[in-house]
Specification:
Layout lengths: L2 H38 L4 E16 L2 E4 L18 E12 L2 E10 L4 E9 L6 E7 L6 E8 L2 E7 L5 E9 L3 E10 L3 E7 L4 E7 L3 E7 L7 E2 L6 E2 L12 E3 L2 E8 L7 E10 L4 E5 L6 E2 L9 E9 L5 E14 L4
Antiparallel strand pairs: 1-2, 1-22, 3-4, 4-5, 5-6, 7-8, 8-9, 9-10, 11-12, 12-13, 13-14, 13-15, 16-17, 17-18, 18-19, 18-20, 21-22
């Protein structure tokens, strides 16, 4: 082997060694940046907390767990296709003509307020996002949807309009029109039901005060219950966390536990006495009935429950949960 060949070989070895060292250095820099970003939550890598929606099933509305046939969460902000969404939450379901429809809050990043979104499912397990169905100049959430006299109505949270507002479907499920203000005030998460004689509505003020109203007709006039507020200064049990439920001849209300942190778990209470003069309730034995799992999409909080009895005798429920996910770059 001549001298020139030996020199070329040495140069090639040095080039290869330099290339390998450079690659190792770049990889180390990327890993270091990833680690620092994750720890310090800088824009390159960060953890973002968000609400998502899942499906639970069980033998009763108070004994529910993640549906084994479902890959939860079934709906996230990434499923929303017509606005830039930050999260989805507050699910309410109805079944009509063999289809499940879910209404929920969509946080609109562009307007920094909530809109009401719609998803549909044939089996209650696999959901397809459709569209925003209600958008107002003010924040909307908690779309309590129900059927009355063959018509669908919605009472979402509209506290920034300083009223509880009633909406009616003019083309179910996608078109809704405003009907009237039911009561005025800075009220959260209205939950309504009819007991066969009259209408009742629970609304919270802040997270620790629960008010009660009643009316002979859905459109009013609505009257404040003489014992309202029926709960005062108790953030664990005041704020509604789902629709009023009839089950085995009894009536239950769900509440989100907001102490020590907002919406950290869901409790249930049986309404044992309800007249135009009195109100009493008692907690169900296995409270809380929903709580954070410690991992994944609902690792930190769960604050909404909407259960429905199936023809098979079991129960299915839409729930929401709060967890963190890793975000790279400036993705949200």
């Amino acid at each position: 082997m001549n001298t020139n060949t030996k020199c070329r070989d040495k140069k090639n070895i040095r080039r290869i060694a330099a290339f390998v060292i450079t690659c190792i250095a770049i990889a180390c820099c990327i890993l270091a940046a990833w680690y620092v970003g994750a720890k310090r939550r800088i824009p390159f890598v960060k953890r973002v907390g968000e609400y998502s929606i899942g499906i639970y099933t069980g033998t009763s509305p108070f004994d529910l767990s993640p549906c084994p046939e479902v890959n939860n969460p079934v709906l996230t902000a990434r499923d929303v296709s017509d606005v830039s969404a930050g999260f989805v939450a507050d699910p309410f379901m109805v079944r009509e003509n063999g289809m499940w429809y879910m209404f929920f809050e969509v946080w609109n990043n562009s307007t920094t307020q909530g809109d009401i979104g719609l998803a549909a499912s044939k089996d209650g397990c696999n959901w397809t996002y459709r569209q925003i169905v209600l958008d107002e100049p003010f924040h909307l959430s908690y779309p309590n949807v129900f059927k009355w006299n063959d018509e669908y109505y919605m009472i979402p949270e509209t506290r920034l309009a300083y009223a509880v507002r009633l909406y009616k479907a003019v083309e179910f499920p996608q078109r809704w029109t405003y009907v009237k203000d039911m009561v005025t005030g800075n009220y959260l998460d209205p939950s309504i039901f009819h007991d066969g004689r009259r209408w009742w509505m629970f609304v919270s003020e802040r997270c620790d005060v629960l008010h009660l109203f009643y009316a002979d007709d859905l459109t009013g006039p609505w009257f404040r219950h003489p014992e309202s507020p029926v709960i005062t200064l108790d953030g664990n049990i005041a704020r509604p966390g789902g629709p009023i439920l009839r089950y085995d001849g009894r009536v239950y209300r769900f509440t989100q536990d907001c102490d020590p942190t907002y919406g950290n778990q869901v409790r249930a209470f049986e309404i044992t006495e309800l007249t135009t003069n009195s109100y009493k309730e008692t907690p169900v034995p296995n409270n809380p009935i929903l709580k954070a799992t410690g991992q994944g999409w609902n690792a930190e909080k769960m604050h909404q429950l909407d259960p429905h009895k199936l023809d098979t005798g079991g129960w299915i429920a839409a729930v929401d949960g709060y967890g963190n996910r890793l975000v790279f770059g400036f993705e949200y």
